[in-house]
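Researcher: We're teaching a course module on how sequence relates to structure. For the next exercise, students receive a sequence and then see the predicted structure as tokens, so they can try to spot secondary structure elements on their own. Here is the exercise chain.
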Amino acid sequence: MKLMVVEDEATSALIIKLLFNSMGYDIGKVAATGEEAVARGVNEKPDLICMDIQLAGKIDGIEAAEKIIACNKNTEILFLTAYSDDQTIARAKKLNPIAYLVKPFDINKLKKIIESITVK
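Model: And here is the predicted structure for the students to work with:
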């Protein structure tokens, strides 16, 4: 399974990257902007993107996810965000993400979600 992480906060990016590395996944460089996420998501066609919503750059994670999914219907989105307001959740849910985890998130819960995807 090809994973991609989109996170502009260095500490969160490192924690997620270390978790995936411990699970045997090499995610490469973490994308920090919505624009970088779209470019990489379209070109690399990951199976799963762990996407923050508030990102550096001009587009947020929801818009980036929309653009990626429009080009690659098989890419799943897992939102990891500090935003839990109704409007943001409603925008994100339109994309049918596999999960919407609010920071600070439970690492074990994230790990279980990733493991459940790999057995599909």
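Model: If you want an answer key for the exercise: The chain has one domain: 3-118. The mean pLDDT is 92.
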